[in-house]
Structure formats: C-alpha cells, structure tokens
C-alpha cells in the first residue's frame, strides 16, 4: 500500500474560494472513470472493478511495486486500498501545487487511449464546483473517508452520485 501523505490544511470560513473535501474530488474521478457504471453490455465488471481501482491509476514500478497489474492498471487487493491510492494521488498533486487543469492533464493525458482531458477537466470542475484553474492545495480539504457501501462496487454497482445534491454527496462520506 502506498504510504499516506500529510493531510491538506482545514477549510477556513474566510476563504475567498470554495473549499472541497478531497473525497468529493475522488468521487468525481471515480465517476468519470466508470466506477459507478459497470459494463452492462457484457455483464462483466469494468476494469475499475476488476482491479479494485476506482481511479484507474496506471501501474508504475516505482509507485506500486507490490501491486499487480491488468492492462497496465494497478490491481489493488481490495476497493479500500484503491480508494486510498486515489486519495494519495490527489494529495500528491495538491502538495506539488498543481491546478485542477494541470492535475487532470497529467492524470488523463492526450494520446492515452480515447482520453479527452479537456472534457475531463470540464466535468470534474462542474461536478465539484471549482474553476479549472483553481490551485488544488488552496481548495481541497481533508482525507477521503473510505467507509460506506459505495466503496464496494460489484455489478450493477452502487447508485451513481447525484452531482446536483451536494448534501447527499457529503452523506456518502459520513462514517
């Protein structure tokens, strides 16, 4: 398992920009990667489910030396390990000072399969409610809370997040 990075600073009520729980960003990435949409045409679990990898993180020997891989995606031992790795990836990009747009272009590069990073940035930005050029370190708070029924995704999977209901999204992260 990837070691945890330090948590981001807590939200301040006087912050001029919205503060978003890091878990909401992880949920948005998992939505974009198909965690909540198993492949119903084949009735087989999607790559995200087969690999316990809600973020479809790519395998790299320096980042995940103890993990397996499937089609160059990391295979985690269980969904909680996959959520923790996604949280660490988001945290690492925030600590390095990336803006949302920069982080997504690294996460979803042009030329890697059918990636469309421009659309990916727009979707994530709209879902989590921050502008694409927001500096992640300034807008993200807290750790991903990896408890809850949505962390397990056997087909047909848990209900898809309703991005129009921020209160409902936050309830998904309550223990």
Oligomer state equals single chain
Supply the number of helical segments: 7
Assign an overall shape: globular
Sheet-strand content, in percent, reads: 5-15%
Number of domains: 1
Measure the end-to-end span. Answer: 22 Å
Spatial ordering of strands, largest sheet: 1-4
Helix-strand string: EHHEEHHHHEH
Give the % helix. 25-40%
What would your notes on this structure say?
There is one protein chain. The protein has one domain. The strands form two sheets. The protein has a two-stranded parallel ribbon with strand order 1-4. The protein is 35% helix and 6% strand. The chain has helices at 22-32, 47-50, 79-95, 100-107, 117-128, 136-139, 166-171, and strands at residues 20-21, 68-70, 73-75, 140-141. The relative contact order is 0.22. By secondary structure, the chain is mostly helical. The radius of gyration is 15 Å and the shape is globular.
Question: What are its keywords?
Answer:
7 helices; mainly alpha; two-stranded parallel ribbon; 4 strands
């Amino acid at each position: 398992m990837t070691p945890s990075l330090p948590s981001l600073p807590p939200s301040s009520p006087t912050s001029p920009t919205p503060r978003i729980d890091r878990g909401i960003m992880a949920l948005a990435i998992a939505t974009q990667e198909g965690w909540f949409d198993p492949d119903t045409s084949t009735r087989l679990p999607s790559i995200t489910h087969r690999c316990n990898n809600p973020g479809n993180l790519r395998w790299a020997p320096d980042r995940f030396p103890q993990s397996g891989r499937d089609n160059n995606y990391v295979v985690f031992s269980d969904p909680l390990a996959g959520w923790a790795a996604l949280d660490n990836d988001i945290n690492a990009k925030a600590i390095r000072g990336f803006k949302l747009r920069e982080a997504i272009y690294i996460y979803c590069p042009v030329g890697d399969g059918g990636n469309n990073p421009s659309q990916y940035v727009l979707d994530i930005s709209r879902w989590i409610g921050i502008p694409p050029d927001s500096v992640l370190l300034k807008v993200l708070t807290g750790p991903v809370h990896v408890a809850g029924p949505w962390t397990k995704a056997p087909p047909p999977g848990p209900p898809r997040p309703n991005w129009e209901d921020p209160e409902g999204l936050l309830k998904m992260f309550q223990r």
